[in-house]
Amino acid sequence: MKLTNKFDLPETIVNVLKRPQYSRGNSHISVTELLSAPQIVQLRIKHNDELEQDASEMVWSLFGTAIHNVLEHGKGDNHIVEERVFVDLDGWRVSGQIDLQEVYEDGIELKDYKMTSAWSVQQEKTDWVEQLNIYAWLIQKAKGVTIKSLQIVAIVRDWNRRDAVNKESYPKAPIVKIDIPLWDFADAEAFVRGKIHSHSSASLNAQIGHDLPECTPDDMWERPTTYAVKKIGGVRAKRVFDTAEEADEMLSTLRDHEVVVRPGIRMRCASFCNVNQFCKQYQQYLEQAGHMIESGD
To answer: Selecting from 3.40.630.10, 3.90.320.10, 3.40.50.10490, 3.30.70.260, what CATH number does the domain 2-208 have?
Structure first.
């Protein structure tokens, strides 16, 4: 992957970003890749030499790396910091690097540090739950020890004191701890096995030239098209429907109202996927959306 510097960031920053920030070690797949869509993983492998990323898009990951250095300097006697753990399952070696393990006589408390936004802290983050439970499974499988608890330590990069006072769900401090529910070991292993199967199938398809498995709506962070009934000239919708038929039915009972189509979007594909230009699924979606606009559908 080629690193660009479109906004003329300082050379010292760019030089640091050029250094390898991540390695999955001697494994077939990392936890991060395991949780990613198989199609995205295979497209990144195939087109790695063609991909570009600008240094400005990597600044927050640089700060995240700095946080890990702080962990190393601040570790206690019972802390294991940034240990990479490997487990073999169904012919695949899975690896994950755990930020912090606090070791006690009755088990381990596992913590993961994240540089993130206030918005993310206020959401139910399924990917955080899945990531930490795979980490827990790795440690249990590799070491045969008990996991006592899982926790995200979120460093809120855009924290605002006024919002902390005025908004009930807003994080009350720039660093917050979020407890993560711990899965049963057997359930976690079944989840990992299912992910391995999906990636194994995608890898085979890529090798023999078959189509890759399509991303799911969740993979694409898809927001479906909706239909808002609102007063003509008004700002707020009276009601929002999932289908045009439902909106038209309500419209027939009202005067001086209209239906406004709010087009859906595949948020990840549009703004957060660096292989979207190579993705047949997304390019077909854009083509279909273009045809709909031209035909007025």
So the answer is: 3.90.320.10
pLDDT digits (tens, 9 = 90+) for 239-265: 999 999 999 999 999 999 999 999 899
Longest dimension (CA), the chain: 72
Pairing relationship of beta strands 107-116 and 147-156 according to DSSP bridges: parallel
d(CA 101, CA 76): 10
Burial state string for 218-244 with b = 16 or more CB within 10 A and e = fewer than 16: ebbbbeeebbbbbeeeeeebeeebeee
Instruction: List the domain boundaries for the chain.
Output: 2-208, 222-295
Q: What is the dihedral of CA 202, 61, 82, 31, to 10 degrees?
A: -10
Pairing verdict, β 239-241 and 257-262 = unpaired
Confidence tier at 292 by pLDDT (50, 70, 90): low
Spatial distance between the Cα atoms of 59 and 9, rounded to a whole number of angstroms: 10
